[in-house]
Write a sequence for this structure.
């Protein structure tokens, strides 16, 4: 770009060019610094959102576990589903999600995703009602490993030997938590593993959805489906009347699920996923704390060791995925010769 159009090559013009060029360089440097600061700020915000989401999910689990034995599982899921469906429906309407017309392929994927969500809800809560909170939460932390493995097997995504080794080590950590065998084995841990499989299927189908499908529409369909299916299932058993304690706990659980949904969606809209994803493991800390405060539970050393192995393997897998993503992005930005 010509800075002094039509000027001669006098010393004054040259000095003006140098001064203006220096100013532009300073502006560019300042802009880069502002962008870097904004990126750091967005990443910090995303990390906070992720931690709030994990805390809200774990608090919801705590309230649901407090109701174990007081209300049948089907009735409990139906009542929570009523509250969450109304709240999510209002949010989806305000965001214009209902104006989107689903195609046949996306509708089939959402139907499959909903079935997986139903299985995950039933398996997870069955395990939660019969196992320590921290143990069930630790098993669920294997999800990044199972999702990476399933994406490699069914979606042909590349997985190097390092990530494959991390997955195998992580599964060894899960075995330390589950402990198959006559000593220390809780058969309800199989429900926890079933929940992991169902959530893996759910997330794989979510990846297959078109980018244009609103997240709130998918969330609303899932919430209504859970409400309807477990409401119909609850008709086969006598309902238990709700007292003030049960009503308060159901409402609180639904409220924290809604908060968790909101923050999990906001996480995807700010910052870098590779930065915020590791903070999902703060759920382990919340589960340890709330399990101890609410139920007097504390995992034995072998379970803690297994949880540490699972978390470490998951963090390494996320690190490798983020590094691969940066390498691909860099190669796409480089000019081709």
């Amino acid at each position: 770009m010509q800075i002094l159009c039509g000027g001669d090559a006098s010393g004054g013009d040259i000095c003006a060019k140098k001064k203006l060029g220096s100013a532009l360089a300073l502006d560019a440097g300042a802009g880069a610094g502002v962008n870097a600061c904004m990126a750091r700020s967005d990443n910090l915000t995303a990390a906070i959102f992720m931690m709030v989401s994990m805390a809200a999910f774990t608090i919801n689990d705590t309230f649901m576990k407090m109701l174990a034995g007081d209300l049948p599982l089907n009735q409990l899921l139906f009542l929570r589903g009523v509250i969450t469906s109304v709240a999510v429906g209002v949010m989806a309407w305000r965001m214009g999600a209902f104006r989107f017309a689903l195609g046949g392929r996306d509708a089939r994927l959402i139907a499959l995703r909903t079935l997986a969500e139903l299985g995950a809800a039933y398996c997870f809560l069955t395990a939660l009602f019969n196992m320590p909170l921290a143990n069930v939460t630790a098993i669920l932390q294997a999800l990044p490993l199972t999702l990476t493995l399933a994406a490699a097997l069914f979606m042909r995504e590349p997985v190097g030997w390092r990530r494959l080794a991390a997955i195998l080590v992580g599964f060894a950590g899960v075995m330390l938590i589950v402990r198959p065998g006559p000593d220390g084995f809780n058969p309800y841990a199989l429900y926890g593993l079933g929940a992991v499989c169902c959530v893996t299927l759910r997330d794989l189908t979510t990846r297959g959805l078109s980018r244009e499908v609103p997240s709130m529409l998918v969330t609303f369909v899932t919430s209504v489906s859970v409400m309807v299916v477990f409401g119909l299932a609850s008709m086969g058993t006598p309902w238990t009347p709700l007292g003030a304690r049960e009503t308060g706990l159901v409402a609180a659980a639904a409220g924290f699920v809604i908060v968790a949904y909101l923050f999990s969606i906001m996480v995807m809209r700010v910052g870098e996923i590779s930065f915020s994803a590791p903070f999902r493991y703060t759920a382990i800390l919340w589960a340890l704390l709330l399990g101890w405060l609410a139920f007097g539970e504390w995992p034995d050393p072998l379970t803690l060791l297994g949880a540490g192995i699972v978390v470490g393997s998951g963090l390494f897998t996320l690190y490798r995925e983020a590094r691969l993503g940066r390498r691909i992005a860099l190669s796409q930005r480089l000019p081709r010769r």
Q: What stands out?
A: Residues 50-332 form one domain. Residues 1-32 have pLDDT under 50 and may be disordered. The two ends are 25 Å apart (CA to CA).
